[in-house]
Amino acid sequence: FDQHFIDYFNRPEIDGWEVRKALGELHNCDVIPDPKIVEAALRACRRINDFALCLRIFEALKIKCGTKKNRKIIYPYIMQQIKPTLDELGIPTLEELGYDEPEFFIPQPEYWWERKWYIFILSF
């Protein structure tokens, strides 16, 4: 599984559409990608000069890590493993760019109906 994606991303003639297609297939799988796959995907993005897609990889990776508890464990581990590649390619992380938190806050679905929000409505 891992080697399939690594080989696909390492193809020298890969274009933007193929990178997006492979990332879509990878995101549809019920796995957190191995750091080696992420490194290969970042190198492919760098070859096609698509910086925005690099940031989308980080965002999707963060979502794939699951709950907040898992994100605090798995996401930093993966970022630590790919840090040399990021430095080599000159790609900043979401945290370095300030994109790790949304600009316009919208409550998460698990906190959407907090008691203080609906207690006022029910009191009428």
UniProtKB/TrEMBL annotation:
Keywords: Heme, Iron, Membrane, Metal-binding, Mitochondrion, Mitochondrion inner membrane, Transit peptide. It holds the Pfam family COX5A. InterPro entries: Cyt_c_oxidase_su5A/6 (IPR003204), Cyt_c_oxidase_su5A/6_sf (IPR036545). CDD domains: Cyt_c_Oxidase_Va. It is a peripheral membrane protein. The keyword Membrane applies. One of its GO terms (cellular component) is respiratory chain complex IV. The keyword tRNA-binding does not apply. GO terms for biological process: mitochondrial electron transport, cytochrome c to oxygen. Pathway: Energy metabolism; oxidative phosphorylation. Coiled coil: none annotated. It is found in: Mitochondrion inner membrane. GO terms for molecular function: metal ion binding. PANTHER family: CYTOCHROME C OXIDASE POLYPEPTIDE, CYTOCHROME C OXIDASE SUBUNIT 5A, MITOCHONDRIAL. Component of the cytochrome c oxidase, the last enzyme in the mitochondrial electron transport chain which drives oxidative phosphorylation. The respiratory chain contains 3 multisubunit complexes succinate dehydrogenase (complex II, CII), ubiquinol-cytochrome c oxidoreductase (cytochrome b-c1 complex, complex III, CIII) and cytochrome c oxidase (complex IV, CIV), that cooperate to transfer electrons derived from NADH and succinate to molecular oxygen, creating an electrochemical gradient over the inner membrane that drives transmembrane transport and the ATP synthase. Component of the cytochrome c oxidase (complex IV, CIV), a multisubunit enzyme composed of a catalytic core of 3 subunits and several supernumerary subunits. The complex exists as a monomer or a dimer and forms supercomplexes (SCs) in the inner mitochondrial membrane with ubiquinol-cytochrome c oxidoreductase (cytochrome b-c1 complex, complex III, CIII). Belongs to the cytochrome c oxidase subunit 5A family. This is Cytochrome c oxidase subunit 5A, mitochondrial. It comes from Dracunculus medinensis (Guinea worm).
